[in-house]
Structure formats: C-alpha cells, structure tokens
C-alpha cells in the first residue's frame, strides 16, 4: 500500500470540510498511520477549521484508530476549530460507547445533522 | 464440512501476516455460519491481541515471534496468542474509561476485547492470551 494513496474523500461544503473514510477496515497500524497523517494535514497543512469525519464506509475500527481520532480532536480544538463525526454504524458506535469516547466526540447520526450548526 | 477447524500460525512481527491470520480465521468462522457480528468481533479482537503481542510483548523485536493457535467449531471460536515477551499484570493496566484517561491516545485494546468477546483470559505470566467468542 503506497503512502501516496488517498484514504479520505474530501468535500468542501461552504466553510466546512467533509472527510469521508475510503477504507472499510481501519485496523492495521500502517494504514492507520497513513490515515492519521492525512487527517492531521487537513488542520496543520490546509488550515481547515470545521471538519466532519464521515464513517459511512467504515466497517471495522481498532483502538489504534481511536488514538488518531483523539489526537485529531486535540489538534482541531487547539486550532480553534470544530470536529464532528457522523454516519457511524452500530457495531462501530459500540466501540466508541465501550471506551466512553462517545462522550468525548461530537457524534451525529448523518452528514446533514453534522453540517447543521457546526 | 469437518466438525472443527484447527491450525497454528507463527508470526514474525509483521502486520501483513496478521492480516492473513485474520482472513483465515474469518474464513473458518464464516464456513461455520457465524454472524457478521461474530466476524466483526473476531477481526477486532485478533487485531488488538496481535498488536499487543508484537508491540507490548515482543517490543517490536523482529527476532521474536508470536505463536497463534486457533480452533473453530460450530459452537465457538477459540484463539490463543502467545508472545516471547516478559508478560504483564492485567491489574497494572489503567482503566481507559476513567475521566483522567479519556483523552489518552492508547490503552483501549484490552477493554474492547473484554467487552466484545465471550471470554478473555491471560496466563499468569501475562504473555499468552486466550480469546473465546461463542457463536451467536
């Protein structure tokens, strides 16, 4: 897997960036490292402030991926921005609930709800 | 179809081999008609356990191995993962759901395995974990 391969589909809606994960499985460390770098680039390189992460395609997510999301949340907050997560299927939502990260992240049911008022 | 599938795999610290292992176990449990939920749980648990074995157990030493034993039948999937590290005490692992740990970037793998699996057991030394998922 090349590091140049894009792991996020990026769409800009007004001043909001919607980043949709391309992968079904966000499990292995190499892939997660690449995804993390591409996520952080949205804030650190592109200066984007309002970001929605769309999980529609994601069927598997490991604890290492949760770590990247936490770091991403911190980076966005440090930059004075907002991060929302949306379209998380029930199995994956359970991963957030078990770890109580559903209390840390701003999670919405779908993209429309995530876009509202961000 | 046979009444059970059993196989042993030795990993020498590389992720692609861990992916192949996941695929092989998933293929076995699918043959026995396990649910998509069971497949989800086993993929997640194997990933977490193998990463722990390579990263925390073997400290990413490329000379060290991870030994995996699998047995799948119509009732349960059983996977034992042993590393060549010094082991650890489960009681020393901080609870990732405590307020002060919520924003830490790591330490959630065991919590996830405990919650999703039917049982999760470590040997006394802490270098061998047994994962069991009953068929739903």
Show the helix and strand layout:
The complex is a heterodimer of chains A (118) and B (136).
Chain A: E1 8-13, E2 16-21, E3 25-26, H1 29-44, E4 50-54, E5 60-61, H2 63-78, E6 82-86, H3 90-98, E7 106-108, H4 111-115
Parallel strand pairs in A: 2-4, 3-5, 4-6, 6-7
Antiparallel strand pairs in A: 1-2
Chain B: E1 4-11, H1 15-31, H2 36-57, E2 66-73, E3 76-83, H3 109-116, E4 119-122, E5 128-134
Antiparallel strand pairs in B: 1-2, 2-3, 3-5, 4-5
Helix pairs in contact in B: 1-2, 2-3
Number of domains of chain A: 1
- Topology-level CATH name of chain A: Transcription Regulator spoIIAA
Overall shape of chain A: globular
| Second CATH tier, the architecture of chain A | 2-Layer Sandwich
Interface with most residues: A-B, 26 and 25 residues
In total, the number of strands of chain A is 7
Beta-strand percentage range of chain A = 15-25%
**Main sheet: strands, sense, barrel of chain A:** 5 strands, mixed
Name of the CATH homologous superfamily of chain B: Histidine kinase-like ATPase, C-terminal domain
Oligomer: heterodimer
> Helix and strand string of chain B, N-terminal first?
EHHEEHEE
CATH class of chain B: Alpha Beta
Strand ordering within the main sheet of chain B? 1-2-3-5-4
Overall, the morphology of chain B is globular
CATH topology-level name of chain B: Heat Shock Protein 90
The unreliable regions of chain A are none
What is the count of helical runs of chain A?
4
Helical amount among residues of chain A, as a percent range?
Answer: 25-40%
Q: Which strand-content bin applies to the residues of chain B?
A: 25-35%
- The span between the termini of chain A is 34 Å
Offer a concise description of the structure:
Chain A is built from 4 helices and 7 strands.
Outline the structure in words.
The complex is a heterodimer of chains A (118) and B (136). Chain A is α/β, with parallel strands linked by helices and 118 residues long. Chain A has one domain (8-115): STAS domain (Transcription Regulator spoIIAA). Chain A is built from four helices and seven strands. A five-stranded mixed beta sheet of chain A has the order 1-2-4-6-7. Chain A is globular. Chain A starts with 7 loop residues before the first strand and ends with a helix. The relative contact order of chain A is 0.17. Chain B is of the alpha+beta class. Chain B has a single domain (4-134), classed as Heat Shock Protein 90 (2-Layer Sandwich). Chain B is 35% helix and 26% strand. Chain B is built from three helices and five strands. In chain B, strand 2 and strand 3 (76-83) form a beta hairpin. In chain B, helix 1 (15-31) packs antiparallel against helix 2 (36-57) and helix 2 (36-57) runs antiparallel to helix 3 (109-116). The longest helix of chain B has 22 residues, at 36-57. Chain B is globular and about 50 Å long. The A-B interface holds A 25, 27-30, 59-64, 66-68, 70-71, 74, 91, 94-95, 98-101, 103-104 and B 15, 18-19, 22, 37, 40, 43-44, 47-48, 51, 96-97, 102-109, 111-112, 115-116.
């Amino acid at each position: 897997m090349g590091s140049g391969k894009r792991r996020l589909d990026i769409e800009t809606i007004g001043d909001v960036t919607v980043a949709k994960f391309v992968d079904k499985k966000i499990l292995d460390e190499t892939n997660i490292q690449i995804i993390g770098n591409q996520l952080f680039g949205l804030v650190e390189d592109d200066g984007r402030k309002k970001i929605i992460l769309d999980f529609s395609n994601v069927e598997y997510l490991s604890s290492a991926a949760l770590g990247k999301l936490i770091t991403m949340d911190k980076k966005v907050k440090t930059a004075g921005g907002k991060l929302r997560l949306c379209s998380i299927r029930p199995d994956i939502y359970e991963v957030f609930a078990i770890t109580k990260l559903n209390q840390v992240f701003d999670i919405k049911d779908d993209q429309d709800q995530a876009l509202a008022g961000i | 179809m046979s009444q059970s599938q059993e196989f042993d795999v030795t990993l020498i610290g590389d992720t692609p081999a861990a992916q192949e292992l996941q695929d092989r176990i998933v293929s076995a449990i699918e043959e026995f008609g396990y649910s998509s939920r069971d497949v989800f749980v086993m993929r997640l648990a194997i990933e977490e356990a193998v990463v722990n074995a390579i990263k925390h157990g073997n400290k990413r030493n490329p000379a060290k191995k991870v030994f995996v034993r699998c047995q799948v039948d119509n009732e349960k999937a059983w996977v034992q993962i042993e590393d060549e590290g010094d082991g650890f005490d489960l009681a020393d692992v901080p609870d990732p759901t405590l307020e002060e740990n919520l924003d830490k970037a790591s330490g959630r793998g065991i919590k996830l395995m405990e919650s999703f699996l039917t049982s999760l057991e470590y040997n006394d030394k802490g270098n061998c974990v047994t994962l069991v998922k009953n068929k739903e």
